[in-house]
Design goal:
This protein has 549 residues and is of the alpha+beta class. The chain is 43% helix and 16% strand.
């Protein structure tokens, strides 16, 4: 769902590699660089089956358009008081609110770098050790933290290509990684009998900071509606393991066996994380998920018609589990042209699905919506048959739903996108009228006489029988993502934009067999590259190696 994750992972791995190679003997560096370049090329080749299709569709997505036109131009940094608030959340995320225990401060959707308070003294012990790599982890952690808490470093990073459209706050995982790496170095010191003093001092400082900040931020937590007992519990989950760990290490240290305390400290850390996270995702019995709704059994599966529900009834992801083609959508990347039609048929909700309040709007009939689930408290639209009623919901059928492929009686060719959308807003019967891309002289024109029948239907392929007395535009309600192809009698033909965001084509006079299929060249090309790379990688892996003399 978040393509920038790959970008940010590479942004962290690159400095790590350069740091490691800078410490290698100079004679070994050229070979290491060659191997690194080869590894990078192999990684790109193996990932081509995913990367090429992503590059193919990203430019036509609404998210890319939005980020290039608006998000890339925005200031990423925030005032000092908000930066400090974000920093405090890295020490204890519950300070900004916990769902189910009051409200949550807006703007904190990205998780914090926090991975357990007991890591703090471990990380301090690692930081004050002698391992060269500690400086890398410190720099990597501070850099990612500076970006994620929105200091001016966030603005500097956003000036770089790709980073300008990426949500760079997702780089917070690098800060978590850095703390964990430093903590591992600290554990290694303790195992060697070193670092006890630093651990104990950092443990005391951590407890003082956590208690002090908790007291200072108590009014904020109260304002969020967080119960005081819950806030105290969260604080105890942090400071008690640190205090117990410090006491254990001090006791073992006095007997000269500080290293023997390490297994106990690790156990305390595991226990801390268990009590802090046990109720984050509570387990529920399997029967609680996606129960069998008899009312949905009235909808035939595999038929070339779509489904919708009104309001908050049966959210779209759930509909997909039941095998229904839900027109409302719920995707991380949306076709930009389709998003521009939302005002014609739904109420878009930021970062969520498209709510439908009125199932009778004409554009929904064009979108092939035949079955609609509504609350029983809402009367069925006039003339819509009621198929079933059960458990406070009602299933109704749209008698005006158009087939997935049909022949509009009149078409209007319009090249200007804004004018196309305006025309679509005026149409009340999409079986009668449709708008195609192009310049047609500014008038409605009669479409050719033709009939179309869907002979076979699959999610990514549809076979049509077209009988045309005249040359005609055959319209569909398939969103025109790159990669859709049309073959007429076994020969590829050009596609045509229809109703601003959908697929159509022109059929010549006569009887024709037409196949509409989703077969992006980028997937085929990417698969070929990935397969070739996999074969080459296997050759490199299996070839005989010379053993040193």
């Amino acid at each position: 769902g978040h393509p920038e994750t790959l970008l940010l992972a590479c942004a962290g791995a690159g400095p790590y590699f350069l740091f490691e190679i800078s410490g290698a003997p100079s004679a070994n560096r050229p070979r290491a660089l060659r191997l690194a370049l080869l590894s990078g090329a192999l990684a790109l080749g193996l990932g081509a089956v995913l990367l090429l299709p992503l590059a193919d569709v990203m430019p036509v997505s609404a998210e890319h358009v939005f980020r290039k036109a608006w998000y890339a131009l925005q200031k990423r940094s925030e005032p000092p008081d908000l930066i400090l608030r974000r920093l405090s959340a890295q020490l204890a995320p519950y300070w900004v609110g916990v769902p189910g225990h009051g409200n949550r401060l807006p703007g904190f959707a990205v998780p914090a770098s926090y991975a357990g308070a007991l890591l703090f003294p471990f990380a301090a012990a690692g930081l004050f050790g002698r391992q060269r790599s500690r400086w890398l982890f410190l720099g990597l952690g501070l850099a990612s933290l500076a970006v994620c808490v929105k200091t001016p470093a966030a603005d500097w990073l956003a000036k770089l290509p790709l980073f300008d459209i990426a949500i760079n706050e997702y780089a917070i995982f690098l800060a978590t990684f850095a703390v964990c790496a430093l903590a591992a170095l600290g554990a290694a010191r303790l195992r060697g009998g070193d670092g006890t003093g630093v651990f104990l001092a950092a443990a005391a400082a951590s407890c003082v900071v956590l208690v002090g900040l908790s007291a200072r931020l108590a009014p904020q937590m109260t304002a969020l509606g967080m119960p005081q007992a819950f806030a105290r519990e969260r604080l105890l989950f942090q400071v008690v393991p640190i205090a117990v760990a410090a006491a254990v290490l001090a006791a073992f240290g006095r007997r000269g066996r500080a290293a023997s305390a390490l297994p106990i400290l690790v156990f305390l850390f595991v226990a801390e994380r268990a009590v802090e996270t046990f109720d984050v995702s509570p387990t529920l019995p399997e029967r609680a998920f996606y129960p069998d709704f008899a009312i949905l059994g009235r909808i035939p599966r595999g038929a070339p018609y779509r489904f919708a529900a009104t309001g908050m009834t049966l959210l779209p992801n759930a509909a997909a589990v039941y095998g229904l083609e839900d027109v409302r959508g719920y995707e991380a990347m949306r076709l930009a042209a389709l998003v521009q039609t939302f005002s014609l048929w739904c109420v878009p909700q930021s970062f969520w699905f498209n709510r439908i309040d009125d199932p009778t709007v004409p554009f929904l009939s064009f979108l092939n919506v035949r079955w609609v689930l509504t609350p029983q408290s809402v009367p069925p639209p006039d003339g819509w048959p009621v198929l079933a009623e059960d458990d406070r919901v009602r299933l109704v059928e749209n008698p005006r739903a158009l087939p997935r492929a049909f022949i509009p009686r009149f078409v209007f060719a319009e090249a200007d996108p804004g004018r196309r959308l305006a025309l679509l807003g005026e149409i009340r019967d999409f079986a009668e009228r449709g708008v195609i891309d192009g310049d047609g002289g500014g008038a409605w024109q009669a479409n050719g006489r033709a009939q179309v029948r869907i002979d076979a239907y699959e999610p990514q392929r549809m076979v049509l029988d077209v009988s045309a007395q005249d040359a005609a535009v055959v319209a569909t309600s398939i969103p025109s993502w790159p990669g859709w192809k049309v073959d007429l009698d076994g020969h590829p033909i050009a596609t045509l934009g229809f109703n601003h965001a959908f697929l159509a084509f022109r059929a010549p006079p006569g009887s024709h067999r037409v196949t509409v299929s989703y077969a992006p060249d980028s997937v085929a090309d990417g698969a070929a590259i990935s397969l070739a790379t996999a074969i080459f990688s296997a050759f490199l892996l299996l070839r005989p190696r010379r053993l040193p003399a």
